[in-house]
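dude i think i finally got it to work??
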Amino acid sequence: MRFEYRAKNESGKTVTGNIEAANEKVALEMLSDQNLIIISLTKQDKLPIWRRPLNISFLQRVKPKQMVFLSRQLSVMVSAGLPLVQALEVLSEQSDNHYLKKVLQKVADDVREGRRFSVALAQFPKVFDDFYINMVRAGETAGKLDEVLNYLADQKEKNYDLISKIKSAMIYPAFVIAAVIGVMVLMMVFVIPQLTGVLKEAGVDLPLPTRILISLSDFFSSNLLILIIGFLFLVAGFIFWIKTPKGKALWDKFLLKLPVFGDLFEEIYLVRFTRSLSTLIVGGIPISSGLKIVAKVVGSSVYKKTIQDAVIDVEEGRSISDSFKGAPHIPDMLSQLLSVGERTGRLDDVLMKISDFYSREVQNTLSKLVTLLEPIIIIFLGVVVGGMVAAIVLPMYQMATAF
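look at this
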């Protein structure tokens, strides 16, 4: 989020400007690093519209694949002994994303001026999330920035591989369904109306399937523009709804209750939770702080609530395994393995093994899902195409037999 500030510099002069940070606390920390005495700090959305800077979000996007390459290359350069500023400048020059190029150059300039790397990254929360920033901050504090960057690169790569496998598995069913719907609409709007005139002129008593098809065709042809606008409004309304706290909570609960797909989503969220927490613990983040960060990046309001409840328990002295015992959508096996990890002092290793297990389960569930969807799609195609063909051919057959 962006803030507008008024402050006094070292010479006592009042200065104004804009700064981007994850929250107000981070913004104050960043301004303090510049030796500024804050007079006022106002969040951008509280400013009048004419004073807000132009923010075109689709031009300020960094793809997951680009973040994977960035994290891996940065970890390699820093591990090889290249100064951080120089590594950032090299990556900025190599980037083909103009927004990322500017971000990296700004971060490099800030680090050169003496600002902490984590604070410089915090100016761009859309690019570097809380997980990334806190890992870097832990690496700076422990003097192990190169190791932490390597952990981050590994985590980003695993997340990207998981998302890629899910997308690849869903491409074929989505393409077939979209193609069938497209063909149905084209036939309803362009093909069926041409046949309707011929059939009506022939004076044949039309069977029920044909009358239904003609009625649907007339409805689509007469209201095509209204249907398109209504569909767009429906999609826009749905997107707006799931961005509200209540809408997202209901949608996330719905996803986890879906047959077959619910198990898949549960496994995906468990992979994110265990892998992220393991990486944070390895990076030196305390468990309670790690849980707070993971709650923000897990991607489900259901799991976010469960993890936030666990944070309260852990801060009160309870073990993490006890906190998750009996929690919704947390398998008993997970809490038992967490207990083993706590007793042996190897919680990070146990979490990573659990993450690997659920990653394999995601792949197995995807394979089963694709296998299950194929016959369903074939049956769907047969019913739709066969029904339309029968509705068209049947009256023509009656016409032929009448002569």
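The chain has a mean pLDDT of 83.
im so relieved honestly
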